[in-house]
Design goal:
- The complex is a heterodimer of chains A (293) and B (277).
- Chain A has 293 residues and is mostly helical.
- Chain A has a single domain, classed as MetI-like (MetI-like fold).
- Chain A contains 14 helices and no strands.
- In chain A, α11 runs antiparallel to α14 and α13 packs antiparallel against α14.
- The model of chain A has no long low-confidence stretch (mean pLDDT 85).
- The two termini of chain B are 47 Å apart.
- Chain B has 14 helices and no strands.
- Chain B is 74% helix and 0% strand.
- The longest helix of chain B is centred in the first third of the chain and has 35 residues.
- Classes of the chains: A mainly alpha (293), B mainly alpha (277).
- At the A-B interface, α2, α4, α5, α6 and α7 of A face α1, α4, α5, α6 and α7 of B.
Chain lengths: 293, 277
């Protein structure tokens, strides 16, 4: 729709007035907090102490020497890789190889893991993974495999949280891919059918090139989404055993609200925001500003 | 030979569908099974599905717990006010961005775009400090305000919907001397029911499911919400999985019902994946 351009005095400030409430909220809950973060990261602010001293870059230097910071950063990237692979693989298989009536039924069911809260997802998975009465161990016992400690052994715990996160997030990736498939013009498929391409060549020669951008966006959404994972893992493992599943978000939470070390948490937030913004920048660039529905 | 390959192909697809269904529904069925069974039978023989069923006893037990209904009440209060405030600030903003052309518009677009990407773990710490200073710590209002600020996607949902409305509706009304307020109330709102429904449900979902902000903002037992109650329930009944499952099922009923009502009403409109980021 073309925009109405008002030259009269009366209308000059009206658009700003209409935007004002939204801007006030966004400025006070996003812009100002980020600036405040940056300031706090140069101080020694804690949750309790009121007077603040300037520490310059000391928080950042301490952070770079903190092996738990590096461990949680490493865990985050490992988590994105493992869980993201599950998510993408499941979503691609489901979106491309199931069609017709089954696809319609699946796109109804698939909304459940996505609609319910992360705490609910964590309970669903706790029931499966707990060692005494867990569903996974019950399933394994049918095949005479002895029970595993899914949430206690570090490597298994990491695999468990990746699977649980995949269960929650692959529906989202599926919906994005499916929307992409809907947008492919029908005639292209018809023409390639007439040209006697078989199904595999239709998928790889027609779908994939058109879908490349959507794939790229899916990967970036996986990056962005998994980077900020918190609740599900917090509730399943609490970052344990021995911080084996502690992600960067949990590191910040621990610094701020358990050790009460706000300044350290701010420094960590600033560092990870810089890393995170690369993914966001790429996402916005590919979407060419139209970052919304 | 060709037929043989086709059968194999079909079998592989069938196998995949079955595995996918197990992966999707298995966890949910397992929870449903535990929720309707006697807790002691779950503990003794977890693998014996749907044995020793107690019906809705576990659900009633959960509802009789002293705090359960308080959690639901708090979640409803927070969600309803969050919906009202979010709609009140995003509809005028979306109207302004759709109808007017004005200086610095792109700057405002950017300011509205970026917040959706900021993880709440990052902006919640300064917001928490500010709320503490303002005396808003440990109140439901803190939750309402914090979640009302997440309007990026809602504003854009309205913008893309308003753009689909015929522009002569606006122009005719303006020429006939209608005020902008009148246009919003009399023309846009009645036409925008699907967008209103979709936006309300998205906002509801966000605040109903919010755990992390509740963990930080809500400390007193009488203002806690459902997700926080669930989290404490895991600690309190750490062996009694039947009660935990029952509470969990009760907690997801509102979101599931709303999601499928919307899905029925709007068919595929919600499936625009970008709205889910």
């Amino acid at each position: 729709m073309s925009l109405i351009n008002y030259k009269t005095e009366k209308f000059r400030i009206l658009p700003y007035i209409l935007l004002l409430p939204a801007l006030i909220f966004i400025l006070s809950f996003y812009v100002a907090p980020l600036i405040y973060h940056l300031i706090l990261s140069f101080t020694d602010r804690t949750l309790i102490k009121k007077e603040i001293n300037l520490m310059y870059l000391k928080n950042y230097l301490l952070l770079l020497k903190d092996r738990f910071f590096w461990k949680s950063l490493f865990n985050t990237f490992l988590f994105i890789t493992i869980s993201g692979t599950f998510q993408l693989a499941l979503a691609v298989l489901t979106a491309f190889f199931i069609r017709g009536k089954t696809a319609r039924i699946i796109s109804v069911i698939i909304l459940v893991p996505w609609a319910i809260s992360e705490i609910s997802v964590s309970i669903v998975w706790r029931l499966l993974l707990t060692d005494g009465t867990g569903g996974l161990n019950s399933l394994l016992s049918i095949f005479k495999i002895k029970p595993q400690l899914w949430l206690v052994k570090p490597a298994l715990a990491f695999l468990s949280i990746s699977l649980a996160q995949a269960w929650r997030l692959f529906p989202l990736i599926y919906l994005i891919l499916k929307t992409g498939i809907y947008t492919i013009p029908k005639d292209i498929i018809d023409i390639s059918r007439i040209e006697c391409l078989n199904r595999r060549s239709i998928i790889f020669k027609v779908y994939v090139p058109i879908m490349r951008k959507i794939f790229l966006l899916s990967v970036l959404i996986i990056l962005i989404r998994n980077f900020r994972a918190f609740t599900l893992i917090f509730s399943l493992t609490g970052g344990g055993p021995l911080r084996a599943t502690e992600l960067i978000t949990m590191f910040i939470y621990r610094e701020a609200f358990i050790y009460h070390n706000i300044a350290r948490a701010s420094a960590a937030s600033v560092v990870i925001l810089l890393i995170y913004s690369i993914a966001v920048y790429l996402y916005l660039k590919i979407k060419k500003g139209r970052a919304f529905a | 030979m060709h037929n043989f390959y086709r059968t194999i192909h079909k079998l592989i697809i069938l196998f995949f569908i079955l595995s996918l269904m197990t992966f999707l529904l298995g966890p949910l069925l397992w929870m449903a099974d535990i929720a309707v069974r006697n807790p002691s039978s779950v503990e003794k023989e977890p693998g014996k599905l749907f044995q020793d069923i107690t019906g809705i006893d576990n659900f009633i037990h959960v509802l009789r717990e002293e705090n359960t209904l308080i959690y639901f009440k708090n979640s409803f209060i927070i969600s309803v006010f969050t919906i009202l405030i979010s709609l009140a600030i995003s509809i005028p903003a979306a109207y302004s961005l759709t109808v007017f052309r004005f200086p610095l518009k792109n700057l405002f677009l950017a300011i509205i775009t970026v917040p959706q990407f900021i993880p709440s773990i990052i902006n919640i710490i300064p917001v928490y400090l500010i709320f503490q200073k303002a005396g808003l710590g440990n109140t439901r209002l803190a939750m309402i305000l914090f979640h009302s600020s997440r309007v990026s996607l809602i504003i854009w949902l309205f913008v893309s919907y308003f753009e689909s409305i015929q522009k002569n509706f606006f122009e005719d009304a303006l020429i006939n001397g209608a005020s902008h307020l009148k246009i919003i109330i009399k023309i846009i709102m009645p036409l925008s029911f699907p967008a209103l429904a979709a936006a309300s449900i998205q906002i509801f979902n966000g605040s109903w499911n919010a755990f992390f902000s509740a963990l930080i903002f809500l400390l007193d037992e009488d203002i806690k919400t459902v997700p926080l109650g669930l989290y404490q329930f895991i600690d309190r009944y750490n062996i009694n999985y039947s009660l935990i499952s029952a509470f969990n099922i009760l907690s997801v009923i509102p979101t599931i019902v709303l999601f499928y009502l919307l899905k029925l009403k709007l068919k595929n409109k919600l499936e625009n994946g970008e709205g889910f980021l």
